[in-house]
Design a protein that fits this description.
Elements (H helix, E strand, L loop, with lengths): L11 H16 L2 H10 L3 H17 L16
Length: about 80
């Protein structure tokens, strides 16, 4: 492609902006900070998430082998 004009659903300028902003976000360490922030879930929310996960597992035909599990955590 000789020019950087949008093609179909692709938009080269938007893709470049997204890539640059994403790289900047990661380079500034903001991704790690947000990960840490989400790990510190409030106890009520954590309990609700665990109940929802358990309810989903009860309806499932079988466990998804692709899901990573914390084998140190007792079931």
């Amino acid at each position: 492609m000789a020019d950087d004009k949008p093609q179909g659903e692709g938009d080269y300028e938007a893709a470049r902006h997204y890539r640059e902003k994403t790289e900047k976000f990661v380079d500034e360490g903001k991704a790690e900070q947000q990960t840490e922030d989400r790990r510190s879930v409030d106890p009520a929310e954590k309990e609700a998430l665990e109940r929802a996960e358990k309810a989903g597992e009860e309806r499932a035909k079988e466990k998804d082998p692709a899901v990573r599990r914390d084998y140190q955590k007792p079931e």
